[in-house]
Amino acid sequence: MSASSRTCRYLLYFANEHIEFKIAELKSLASLYNIKLDLHEACIDKKDPFLVVDLPSEDGAIQIMSRTLLVRSAYELWGQGKSHEEMYRNLAAFHTDRMAPYFSANTTFKIMVESFNKTITQKEKVQRIEELPQDILKFEGKVNLKNPVHIFTLMEYYGHVGTTPPDKPLAVYFGRWICDGQRDKISYFNLQKRHFIANTTMDPGLSLIMSNLARVKQNSLVFDPFVGTGSLLVSAAHHGAYIIGTDIDYLLLHAKSKPSRARQKKRASDESVQANFGQYRLESQYLDVLVADASCHKLWRPMIHFDAIITDPPYGIREGAKRVGKDAEDEEKSSLQDEFPKRIPRLRDYHLSDIFLDLLDFSAKHLQMHGRLVYWLPVDRLDYKEENLPSHPCLQLIANCEQVLNSKVSRRLITMEKVREFQENGGMTARVEVDHYQDATFRERYFRPTNLTNDEDN
Ligand SMILES: C[S@@+](CC[C@H](N)C(=O)[O-])C[C@H]1O[C@@H](n2cnc3c(N)ncnc32)[C@H](O)[C@@H]1O
Asked: Which controlled-vocabulary keywords does the entry list (predicted)?
């Protein structure tokens, strides 16, 4: 067996932002590329920026890095320890045949020293490099600081961000840098530079993570039933998907709603969801966005199946979620109905639990087998329990990550996979054990004063 085909150990260095999604994203990308991934349980701490993994090959690491938003950099791990001495001992045990090519006199290299949660001086960095065991690291090539062929990193970890760093590092790693992840896409898709946005446009980092969790790939067909300005679909299209969306809001989809940018008085005539795809040269992936109420439209024939459904349903923080409903008790007439009589229907409340039950029912019917649904679920942190998540006999829960919004509420990024064919008369419907939005809407829970105790709440 050649050195390059042996399973090898890699160090993944994660960004701190959105770190709560790191394992879910990594596992999804490994399964997207069919890569066997072994996580070293000892290093799995939700907040740790470092994770040691075994992968069958460097190609696998490169594939994962070609998609990940959360991993900053990947390194072939040559040595690790709780101290420099322990790291040197492990370095001595690393395969010499793996190291040898990088020591060649015909190549160039540089060694970087990085520290996490503590600043170390340039002088200390040089000292750390000089202390590295030269009987193991037998570099014969030339040092090239500007443009080396190979880069090695000595990494010192001093605890989570916000904790007081100890004098000595908690962990020390030495590895060969392989490549960086896709963090640069966050600024590429920056909302400040995006042509058409609204108040609820999803941040590009989270949108790309959702597309990764959904295992979107070249030529996937991806649907967002609550499409808004299409931010989630921009990410899916960037990953090669053909995209389609629906939204109940005619004014928003036609960019006739009030602008959300502070200094903008009127929407420009060329603002639209489609224009965003043009901005990123993704027009070829854009199928359409349609005005439709997710709770009742009959757009899709039974044979239509999506590879992924990714969505951020309305939670009603700014205003309650709505569905089309004439002559209902809670029917509302919008002042805009006079201006757009044929476009703005009468609306009624769309109860939050119903939104999620409808979403799961729809996904069970219209996902391909092994297709994924990725959506945000708002929860009250006090009464959240995993067993109360909406469920469906055709959908298996794959990942469930919390993003805290304030001390009382959070939203959970839920990933589900279709694992059973849907049968129309098979009693296959979505259910939720406890309807947590019965007594108080999510909006009420979101704005509830913090000093209330549990008892006062009841
Ligand atoms: C949180 S926003 C989605 C934002 C979107 N991800 C983006 O990046 O712009 C929720 C969207 O759901 C839409 N919506 C609310 N009720 C709906 C319904 N019954 N059917 C379809 N869309 C609905 C709202 O108009 C809003 O645009």
From this structure: Cytoplasm, Methyltransferase, RNA-binding, S-adenosyl-L-methionine, Transferase, tRNA processing, tRNA-binding
Instruction: For residue 265, give the CATH number of its domain.
Output: 3.40.50.150
Mutate to test the pocket of ligand 1, among 226, 253, 260, 336 (most ligand atoms within 8 A of CB): 226
Residues 6+ positions from 264 with CB-CB distance below 8 Å: none
Residues 172, 190, single domain; the answer is: no
* Residue 247 and residue 254 in contact, taking contact as beta carbons nearer than 8 Å: no
φ/ψ of residue 158, rounded to 5: -115, 30
Measured distance CA(429)–CA(364) in Å, rounded = 9
- Residues near ligand 1 (Cβ within 6 A): 198, 200-202, 226, 228-229, 231-232, 246-249, 252, 293-295, 312, 314, 321-323, 350
- Residue whose CA lies nearest to ligand 1 atom number 5: 228
Q: How far is the CA of 400 from the centre of ligand 1 (A)?
A: 22
Say whether both 376 and 388 belong to one domain: yes
Domain region containing 398: 186-447
Question: Are both 163 and 274 inside the same structural domain?
Answer: no
User: pLDDT averaged over consecutive 10-residue blocks of the chain (458 residues)?
Assistant: 65 95 97 95 76 96 98 97 97 94 96 97 97 96 97 96 94 98 98 94 97 98 97 98 96 85 82 96 98 89 95 79 69 61 73 93 97 96 90 98 92 97 91 80 71 39
206 shares its domain with 75: no
Of 162, 182, 202, which residue sits at a domain end? 182
Nearest alpha-carbon partner for 234 in 267, 190, 269:
190
Which CATH number goes with the domain that contains 123?
3.30.2130.30
Distance 254 CA to ligand 1 centre (A): 14
- Same structural domain, 109 and 191: no
Can you say whether the dihedral through the CA atoms of 117, 119, 122, 128 is positive or negative?
A: negative
Who contacts 389 (Cβ-Cβ below 8 Å, separation ≥6)?
377, 397, 400, 412, 414, 432
Q: Tell me how far the alpha carbon of residue 322 lies from the centroid of ligand 1, in angstroms.
A: 10
